[in-house]
Amino acid sequence: METSNAPRSGGGTDMAMFATAETQPPDVSVEQAADIAGRVFGVTGAITELGSQQDRNFRIDADDGRYVLKIANPAVPEVWLESQNAAMEHLARAGLPVPRPQRSRGGASLEHARIGDRDLAVRLLTFLDGTPLSSFGYLAPAVRARIGGLAAAACRAFADFDAPGLHRRLEWDLRHGEAVVASFAPHVADPARRERVVSVTAAACERLARVQDDLRIAPIHGDVTGDNVVGAIGADRRAWPCGLIDFGDMSRSWVAAELAVACAALLHQVGRDPLGWLPAVSAFDAIVPLDGADVQALWPLVVLRGATLVAADEKQLAVDPRNGYVATNRDLDWAIFEAAASVPWALAEAAIRAAVALPDPAPAPAPKFRPVIAGLAAEHVAIADLSTTSEALDEGRWLEPGVEDAVFAAAGEVALARYGEHRLSRAGIHGADEPATCALHAEVAVAAGRGLAAPADGAVVEAVRGRLVIQCDGATVLVDGIDPAVRAGDQVAGGDRVGAVAASGRLRVQLCVVPDADPPAFATPSAAAVWRRICPDPSPVLGLDCAAPPVDAARVFARRDHVFARVQPHFYAEPPQIERGWRHHLIDTTGRVYLDMVNNVTVVGHAHPGVARAISRQARLLNTNSRFNYSAVADFCERLAGLAPDGLDTVLLVNSGTEATDLALRLARAHTGRQIVVAMREAYHGWSMAADAISTSVADNPRALETRPAWVRLVDSPNPYSGTHRGPDSGPAYVRDALAVIAGLAERGERPAAFISETVHGNAGGILLPAGYLEAVYGAVRAAGGVCIADEIQVGYGRLGHHFWGFLEQGVAPDVITIAKALGNGHPMGAVITRREIAESFAAEGSLFSSTGGNPVSCRAGLAVIDAIESEGLQQNARVVGEHLLARLRELAGRHELIGAVHGIGLYASVELVRSRETREPATEVAEAICERMRELGVVVQPTGDHLNMLKVKPPLCITRESADFFVDQLELVLRTGW
Ligand code: PMP
User: Fold this and answer.
1) Atom 2, ligand 1: residue with shortest CA distance
2) 950-953 and 942-944 as β-strands: parallel, antiparallel, unpaired?
3) pLDDT tens for each residue of 466-494
4) CA of 755 to the centre of ligand 1 (A)
């Protein structure tokens, strides 16, 4: 690779100088193409035409493989075609996935064929299977990285390649970008758009000019875009790049341009993240390291690429208004241009620098600041805490309009909102885009009229009502909320009076160490780290420690990982740090608010004030154990028994669902004197030895089915969509099979102690049991002398909307109910409700004592939960919102093949994802990828079921219709655009 002064073309360039004149493709019919392929290359097979801007390309499916017959536009010199062939051979030898030129019968890889009166150059290449990645609306970060890696691999393999076709003047060579835009921009019809293209290009070229002499020049592919990267659909149904095609734009150019073209192409496929192209940069850098000049040039080149795309489109449409290819790309190219132009230069460059781990350029030494507000002593400054864990924002106050003013006012006369704080007050619910929460300034509430001083010697660059900007040596100081007493252009000395605090009484002070950066007041979480490098902590300007404690989810997770046993799984590859919840929303420490579709435990919503107050009050009174006599246990057990069917009048209190399961099994065994338990496949009942023995889900334990103890017998999980029996009429077959298992026991002289199952099969995805299932099975079990246990740990307690308990959906009553999760809204509680004689049987095994089961704090929590369910009408809400949600999901299923079935009732549902509706094969990896993308869009949803291919839908029961709609809308977006 060499470094050289690039041939920048001046204004008024004659575009005819460029090597690729746009012309119509040559006229060649499919029949003629088939004839050429057979006659010249000896290849025959089904033939179809492929699109091309200026050539004619045909795909041929021959017996020995697939080929592309390329018939070149006669305007393209043959030496270029030969060069392209040589380039493909070269990259193929280096192991890159590129098409390979094939020899003709005469042994040449470039041949000629006469069509009409023209002698056309023809080539045959191998066809790379796959889909152009441009056909996907969204590409996941890992896929973007692979594209960056592919561009770099091509670039590296090209380093020792040369061919005559590389030495030409090509309009897509970004070294001529400025001239191309200058020449084509007049074709942009809309004056405002034209002016924008021209001015943005000028800004890009001005930045480029600073470093372009230092940019490396080498052979590049020059068009590593989604159109030219073909991908295969992986097991995860994501398209992974696996081939690079179309060498028509290769040239010797800046190495950085190879990456810039790839980044620009990604801009409309990164969802809503303005820095979403960074994975491609890091991956490129890992193979072809970027140097300081590349880092400075990259974003100007991306912008220039965007500008050349739109300028070329407009020019092409001006001369050829019916050019469908260009017309289709035009909106996309404008979107690319706008996306590129909208990223602030300073942000893009700093982000690239961070992505390739190059240190920031040594900053000019910051001046020695003196405080803008004299005499602001730390001990007199209260903190206006707007962070995500601020007590001042409890009980949903963060959502109230004017909350920041209220928090400042409550904090005290002189109060500080810290620099670097992710303000919860800036977050809102239902945000598919990241909110800008991170304060890049410090904000002080201080008396209006108080005098303000220049923090250092400098020049006033802006002084308008409310705002003063002083350029000091090495840093810019931005002050908002000031009535300036100086004018733009004034020189000030540190300590000079420059104005007074404006009537708002709130002063914002920001530092910026990158010239012309024009920083925002708040940054989005994903751009915050980069912006903080540009706008460092302004503490020296205030003479106060202004910085909020840093948030670092990765560090917290690493600490957890170090000490917390890894068999305890976690959600997400890079888990956000969730420190607050409110109703059916979860909030991470960067102020991102997620709709919570999975926390069925928090049945009445996160941070429920009634539950919190009850726990707090009782904790201040007494917390002890149920061997003592206190009212809370009596109150709670009465309420609980009152919720159960008649006859189920006796309560045992423990601390979890597992304990409830374990205890229920012990009760059944003590009561029957038998051991055998009949359970359901795809179930989870807990982690203790006994509960684990009947937990059969292979998602939780892949060896579950092989390792069950002999006393466990299984019936099928009755999924009418993908289970052993399928279809709406499959119910009786499941009933028959289950009865056969129970009958089979008797035939072997065995007798069951119990049958246990969830009453709607929650762990399998909220599968409703077939009509009459429990009636038949409970009948058979009871006839055999066994006890029927209903696990209501997930599905009970109002979640099903139409029914408070799941067994009511089946029209039966069990002998034992286990309940946990919802019982304490997250406070650890479990209960067994049964008939007195069954409970009494336990006496044979001694007494039952759980130190914390039934403690007064838990009982008060449990009472507050029941109060909330009743007083807030949550079961009713589960029915109304649940039915709306299910209807929308079913409607969605009608439009997306990926959804095989929607299961459930009320607010217990699942969306079953399948690879094919025919085979109903589970789409496990897709489900995981969709969940990751849904998180980007502000929704927490997770897979469940044996194959982890069902999106579980079991939010807190306070979810609103608007939130249900937000969930479905985001899911629809993901299904439409990809994951
Ligand atoms: N039964 C069912 C149906 C469950 O879903 C769970 C928890 N996932 C349990 C029992 C065990 O409850 P816990 O985690 O409270 O021990």
Assistant:
1) 685
2) antiparallel
3) 999 999 998 999 999 999 999 999 999 99
4) 17
